Amino acid sequence: MKKKMSEISWDDFQRLPFVEKAPYLLQDDGAPYHTLFAQQFDYAVLERLTVLTNCIRKISKSRAGADFLRSLIADKRAMIYFSQPSSRTFLSFLSACQILGIQTGEVRDTSTSSEFKGESHEDSVRTFSSYFDLIIMRSPEKSLAEKMSHALSVSNRPVPIINAGSGKDQHPTQALLDIYTLLRSFEKKGGLKNRTIVFCGDLLRGRTVRSLSYLLTNYTNITQIFVAPPQLQVGQDVLDILSDHDVTYELTDDLKSVLAQSDAVYMTRIQDEWDASEGESAGIDTSNFKFGAAELALLPADGIIMHPLPRRDEISIEVDNDPRAMFWRQMRNGMWIRSALIAMTFGFEREILTYQG
Ligand code: CP
Fold first, then answer.
1. Residue 1: is its pLDDT beyond 70?
2. Cβ–Cβ < 8 Å for 68, 41
3. Does residue 2 carry a pLDDT above 80?
4. pLDDT, tens digit, 9 for 90 and up, residues 303-335
5. Contact 159/126 with Cβ under 8 angstroms?
6. Residue 138 and residue 83 in contact, taking contact as beta carbons nearer than 8 Å
7. Which residues fall within 8 angstroms of residue 339, CB to CB, at 6 or more apart?
């Protein structure tokens, strides 16, 4: 580790700016040990992850390659600890572990674990670390994955933690798969630079937007446009980071007016599970924040439509079969880049890159 988390108190650690927290999460070669927030990834590591992901995809196409991948980390076990609902993130991490031969355990509902009997998060995670070599966790609590990483660092069995979504705050591995999808989409069209990315929907409470917006600051001359009703417009914390990185951004409530200049439109659903009062979101007019045939007609021929999913009605199903609809491929990309992330976490990057099929 570049810096040891065990040598700083939790209070001091949590007060650090992201840039000063990052060295506590990385291995000596810059690969992630813990994956906790998007700001820990720089361009170099994103490139390494992209190359590794492409390599894993290619190797897995043959039976011999799939067998090789499955043998790689077969001595490790991973705990998938989700105290919030999930389909994609849970299943893609499970699939990623299966691709790499990692055995898994799971808690998907804390009413079935001893947390129901009052056990603390710290004791739960310490229990998992007694049986498993990696903890992949989703929680409604902001910074819980960070806090648990710190708690384990001072235990006798520290293991890496991957944040699979924390509160309204961060979803770093979603941002990784989103970046990978953007890179692949523009690979033969000049790459991911000088692009305009439009975020639309509930940008205030969307953790995927927050994490992706941060990650995009690693790429040259990306303009970010945030389209939302005023009540759900993106938070000032995101805008401050964009300003710090000299990123051009724009806020609007008019989706149609920005589509012609869009390279990618990242749609999101209304996150009403975070409503402070019953029916809060239902009182907001979201009718202009949906993508259908009329919006498709305005999107450039090589523009793409993304969505972290799940969707409700913010993308109409008539869009699904348009070649610019990238959200189903985006979802599958999650399995591949999560495989690469886990392989890198356990130090298997070189073995995979040098595999001779
Ligand atoms: N994108 C995403 O996090 O989906 P799930 O909630 O289904 O995991």
1. no
2. no
3. no
4. 999 999 999 999 999 999 999 999 999 999 999
5. no
6. yes
7. 53, 56, 69, 95, 96, 99, 100
Q: Catalytic positions, please? A: 88-89, 117, 138, 171
pLDDT, mean of residues 211-228? 98
Ligand 1 binding pocket, CB closer than 6 Å: 86-90, 165, 174, 308-310
Decide if 333 contacts 327 (C-beta within 8 A): no
Among protein residues, the one whose CA lies closest to atom 5 of ligand 1: 86
Task: Give the ligand 1 atom nearest the CA of 334.
Answer: 1
* pLDDT over 70 percentage in the chain: 100
- Confidence at 44, pLDDT banded by 50, 70, 90: very high
Instruction: Choose which residue among 80, 81, 84, 89 to substitute to test ligand 1 binding: the one with the highest number of ligand atoms within 8 A of its C-beta.
Output: 89
- Diameter of the chain by CA atoms? 58
- pLDDT level of residue 139 (50, 70, 90 thresholds): very high
**What band does 116 get if pLDDT is binned at 50, 70 and 90?**
confident
d(CA 253, CA 228): 5
Residue range 107-124: mean pLDDT, rounded: 90
Residues 336 and 55 sit within 8 Å (Cβ to Cβ): no
d(CA 213, CA 216): 5
Between the CA of 87 and the centroid of ligand 1 the distance, in Å, is 6
Going from the N-terminus, what domains does the chain have, and what CATH number goes with each? Answer: 5-170+334-353 (3.40.50.1370), 172-272+285-332 (3.40.50.1370)
**pLDDT tens digits along 126-137:** 999 999 999 999
Residue nearest to atom 6 of ligand 1 (CA): 86
